[in-house]
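__Protein archive entry__

___
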Amino acid sequence: MNAPDGPPVRRQGPAARRPARPTRSDGDTPGVSQLSVKRVTISDVANLAQVSLGTVSNVLNRPSAVSPVTRQRVLDAIDSSGFVRSTAAHQLRAGKSRTVGVVLLDIANPFFAEMVRGAERVLRDKGYVLMVCSSDESIDRERRYLRVLEEHRVDGLLLAPVERDLKKVAALAGRGIPTVLLDRDAGNLDLCSVTVDDVRGGELAAGHLLDLGHETIGFVNGPLSIRQCADRREGARRAVRRSRRRPEVTLADITVNALSVEQGEEAVPRLLAPIPRPTAVMCANDLLALGVLKGLAKAGVAVPGEMALVGYDDVAFASMLSPSLTSVRQPKFELGTTAAELLLEEALGSEHQHRAVRFEPELVVRASSGP
C-alpha cells in the first residue's frame, strides 16, 4: 500500500527510541514543594509571602521602606524557598557590582595573602567582596586579568603590578574604575598608592651583614623588571657604597626568574661557585630565603656558621624556620587596610585627593644571620 503524499515516515528501531520520561507521583518526594525543583524567582517569593513584586524588591534593596511585619514575612519566604537574588540583574539596575578586583604578583606568597586579609577586613564591612587574581609575575596574565575585571564591572581595583609602565593602568582608572597600587609608587600618574620604602629595606638588610663583618655578600634577587627587586638591590648597593672605607666589600648579584622557593634553591650552586665564596647572602623575599636555606642544607653548608642569611618581608613562617630567619619586616596587613580605605574613599566620596602612603621597613634580627 502506497504512503500518502508528503515526506516519508522514518521508523525508529529499538536502539533509536528514547526512554519514556519517568513520571513523579505526589507521594514520590514527600515534604518537598514545587519551588524546590526549579530555580526560585522573585515572583515565587511574592506569591509565598502574599505581597507584590515591588514589596519584595524593596525588602532586597530598600528594607527601611517596608514595615517590620511585612519585611519579616518576606524574609521568611526567602528563607523557606531558598531564593537567591541574581547579582547580575541587580548590577544592571544599581550600576554597582559590590565587587573589588585584586591582582597580585603571587597569591602563594604569604606577604600578599596577608595584605589581602587586611583589605578584605575593610571592604567586607562595607558590603564588598574581593575577586582575587594572581599574575604570577606575568605581564600577559596581568593584562588579561585587568581586562576580565573591567568586563565584570568591578567597583574598584587593587593592583600589585608587574609592568613598570603603568599607562594601561592609568587608562583603566580614567575609564572610571578607582585604582590603588599595592607596594608600588604611582610616580607622576594620578593614582593612589601604598608602598614600603624598599630602598631603605635593602639598605637595612645589607647594612646588617656588613656590620657583622661580612665582606663578600651574595644577593639572590628576582627579575629587575619588578620594581621591588630593583629598589632592594639599590638599597643594598647603597649600603656597600657607604662601606667604602672597606674596599674589599663586594655585593654579588644572583638574579633568578621568579620570587619562589624553587628558584631560591636553584640559586645555591651559583652562590657557592665563586672562590672565595660569599660568607653571607641576602634574598629579595622570604620565599627565596627559604629555598636558599634548603639548598645550603643539602650542600652541607651550615647557617649561620658558614653562611649568614637574611630574607625580606618577615612572613609568618620566618620565625618558625630552623634557624629562625632574620628578615626585613613590612607592615603587610596595614598595607592592605590602607589601600582598601583609599579605594573606598575614592569610590564613595564626592571629593578625593590621590595620595601616596609610604611605610617604613624594620629589620628583625634572628638566628640565621648569626652573632
Notes: DSSP finds 13 helices and twelve strands in the chain. The radius of gyration is 30 Å. The longest strand covers residues 99-104.
